Structure formats: C-alpha cells, structure tokens
Amino acid sequence: MEFKLNEEAEEKTEETGTESGADADGYYHLPQSDNTVTRVSADTNTKTKKVHIPGFVIVLVVAVVVALILTNIPWNRKTALEPYFRLPQAELEETLGVKMTENPEGPSYLSIPNRDHTGFQVYSGPKKDIGVIYYNGKQAGICFDGKKYSAYGITIGDSESHLLTKAEETKVLAGEGSTGYKYTYYFSMLDDIGQRGSTAEYFLGVDGSVLVLVINDTSNRVVNIIYYYDSTRILQDIDRIL
Fold first, then answer.
1. Order of strands across the sheet with 149-151?
2. What is the distance between the alpha carbons of residues 60 and 190, in angstroms, rounded to a whole number?
3. How far apart are CA 123 and CA 130, in angstroms?
4. CA-to-CA distance for 13 and 104, rounded, in angstroms?
5. How far, rounded to the nearest angstrom, does the alpha carbon of residue 89 sit from its chain's CA centroid?
6. What pLDDT does residue 5 have?
7. Of all residues in the chain, what percent carry a pLDDT higher than 70?
8. Cβ-based neighbours of 188, under 8 Å, separated by 6 or more
9. Are 82 and 210 in contact (CB under 8 A)?
10. Which member of 130, 163, 218, 234 lies 3.0 to 4.6 Å from 144 by CB, making a disulfide possible if both were Cys?
11. How do the domains of the chain map onto residue ranges?
C-alpha cells in the first residue's frame, strides 16, 4: 500500500509538471515565497547610472577658479599712479593709505643729467618704495620702485627692450593696458652713484614733463621710475652734457 501511494504521488507530480518537494525522508516542505523571488529578481535587475564629466570640463573649471583666486590676491594688484601724479602730498597719502616722511637719502636716488641734487628733497613712505619729490620747497614730481605700482602700464621689472622697441615706433611709451606717455624726444645716460650699475632713459613729454626709467645694466629691466612735472630744472646744462 505504501508503494502504491508513492507511485500515485509520482504520477501526480508528472501530470502537473512540478516537483514533489519531498526530501530524502519523504517529508514535504513549504515552497519559497513569491515575494522572495520577486525581491531577488528586482535586486538583480537594478543598474547604477553613472554621470560622465569630460576631462576638459574639469580642467576648464579648475583654470577659472585659479584665475579668480589670483585676481583677488592683493599682491597681484597694481595701483596706476598717473592719475595721482600731481596730487598734493596729503591727498596722495590719503589715496594710497601711506604716511610719508622726509627721506634724507632720497635725493641721491633721483636721476638728474647734471647730477646736481641741490635743492631737492624726497618724502617717502615707510617702505621707501614710493616718494614725493620737492625742489626748492615746491612739489616737483613723484618716484617709485615698488612692484605694486605702475605708471602708464609700466611696472618695476618690465623689460627695457620690449618697452623701447614699441616706443620708438609710436613715440608713445606704454606698458600693457595703457594709452601711454606721449613724448617728443628721449636720450640715455649712465646713472649716478645712487643707482650704480644702471642707465637712465629720459623721455621728454609733450606737456613739458619728464618721465625717467632707470634700467639695471645686468638684467636690462626697470628698477626705478621717476616723473618730473617740469623739464626746466631737469634739463639744466643738458646741451653741455650731451
């Protein structure tokens, strides 16, 4: 009888096309839940979507960020002085945030063709990188060798050959981003002992002023810039000197 029952169970299984589910001892177990099958199936079919960013986009973003940072770093900014050349000393101090006092050594660093510094005084800031020039008690110009300043787009460290090549072609002395300093004539002279190892380039402006670029003879770069309001005293004895 037991054999018969087993035989009928096997026949029934064959008819339905499903496994009996009996184990080796003849016991039957509950089938796995459909929910489990569905969950496994869902997990198996899940795909992670990845966003691809082209390499050049990353490079471009980094370059823009670096440029913005450099632009806003204080030491990278240049103060253009030409709008302030003729301001009274008190106003210039207020504009630049610098307090100036007399610098006894200042006159010896002024480039003057006849090398006569009699009557000249210089009032400079605490770093001595900018100064106001006086002649016989009257304000007569401005001078600087600080890298945070510029004049007509020209800054300390600029190449002499680059500036002069452009100037000779146009009669305008100009650095980057400036309309420049218009002049009628220029000449060169070895500088005095105060600027040993250097040459002074004198540019005579169309307005009667004088712009002087002091060039280091070794590096051939600008190391000092001087602006005189009036050429009369500066060019004194020039006919005899040249």
1. 79-80, 149-151, 154-155
2. 48
3. 9
4. 117
5. 29
6. 47
7. 70
8. 199, 200, 201, 202
9. no
10. 130
11. 79-241
- Please state the φ and ψ torsions of residue 184, each to the nearest 5 degrees: -105, -25
Token readout for 92 is: 């210039």
Amino acid identity at 213: L
Average pLDDT of the chain, as a whole number: 81
pLDDT of residue 38: 47
The DSSP result for the chain, as a single string, is: -HHHHHHHHHHHHHHHTS---B-TTS-B-PPPPHHHHHHHHHHHH---------HHHHHHHHHHHHHHHHHT-GGG--EE-GGGTTS-HHHHHHHHT---EE-TTGGGGS--TT---TTEEEEE-TTSSEEEEEETTEEEEEEE--TTEEETTEETT-BHHHHHHHHHHHSEE--TT---EEEEEEEEEE--GGGTTEEEEEEEETTS-EEEEEEETTT-BEEEEEEES-HHHHTTTHHHH-
Q: Does this model's pTM top 0.70?
A: no
